[in-house]
Amino acid sequence: MLTPLLGSSQGARKQQQDRAVHDAAFKLGGGGAEGEVVLLAVLDGHGENGAKVAEYAKDALLTLLGGTVTLKGLEETPAAVLGAVFEKLQSMLQEESGIDLYMSGTTLSLVIVHGKTLYAANVGDSRIVLGRKRSANDEGESAVAGSAGGSNDTLSSNAYKTVLLSVYVVLLLHVHTKVMPTCRDHSWADPEEVARATAAGGRVEAEVRDGPLRLYKGTMPYPGLAMSRSLGDDVAHRVGASAEPYVTVHDLTDADEFVILASDGLWDTITSKGAVKMVSK
């Protein structure tokens, strides 16, 4: 069975706004052994009510996955199924949560593993990185995200181990690796994201020289959201932010050793390559 090792650190912040999910035997809608998956998620709240948003979104995510998402649907149309989950999460936050979302929201990075297939979806800047064992033919330091073919043998639950340290979750599939990014950091450096915001009346610029690009409402000095996609964030979503996730599907092989889910609390201090090296030791 998956064994979680737990730790927590909120640094100098007044409250911990990160939330995480780690369940090695989660049952998707329909229940039964066939719907049992490994479920991992990291949420990083921001704004005055960020902790409330992250907590609500975490609970709502579990409800939706356990009620409306079936393994058959996930296998057949993963982007549509997971996209619908994120869309529903956004509407639930806006219409049912009772939380003031004016300038508060959360990221969400989600991983579902069934057999030898890994489904990943994310909004925001909480990153998902797959650590893959190097082959003799590998020359570069990293590889481009994508599917990798492999056998159809199912990984046993004993092959999984999870490490949760406040802002990140690591799923060790086996236990020398290379980096296989499985998500996209949603920032305003992407011209397509900027075009969407501009069309909605948003303004994208850096608050300070060499600072990150942020989203503003017209000529107003707010909301200043640095990520182009999130959950919550009412003002930002009115002027171009989106809750549509980036979804990828990966066929796992024996070379895949672990996957890291982490908020920017980790990625602001270490690169994907550095994190993979640290975990693989």
Structure, described:
The protein has 281 residues and is of the alpha+beta class. The protein has one domain (4-133, 145-187, 242-274): Phosphatase 2c, domain 1 (4-Layer Sandwich). Helices cover 25% and strands 32% of the residues. It is built from seven helices and 16 strands. The protein has helices spanning 50-67, 71-76, 78-95, 191-199, 234-238, 264-267, 272-280; strands spanning 4-7, 18-27, 36-46, 105-106, 108-114, 117-123, 127-133, 161-165, 168-172, 177-181, 202-206, 213-217, 223-225, 231-232, 246-251, 256-262. The strands form three sheets. Strands 2, 3, 4, 5, 6, 14 and 15 form a seven-stranded antiparallel sheet that branches. Strands 1-8-9-16-7-10 form a six-stranded mixed sheet. Helix 1 crosses helix 3. It is globular and about 55 Å long. The two termini are 22 Å apart. Mean pLDDT is 79; it is low at 1-10 and 138-181.
Describe how the helices and strands are arranged:
Blueprint: E1 4-7, E2 18-27, E3 36-46, H1 50-67, H2 71-76, H3 78-95, E4 105-106, E5 108-114, E6 117-123, E7 127-133, E8 161-165, E9 168-172, E10 177-181, H4 191-199, E11 202-206, E12 213-217, E13 223-225, E14 231-232, H5 234-238, E15 246-251, E16 256-262, H6 264-267, H7 272-280
Parallel strand pairs: 1-8
Antiparallel strand pairs: 2-3, 3-4, 3-5, 4-14, 5-6, 6-15, 7-10, 7-16, 8-9, 9-16, 11-12, 12-13
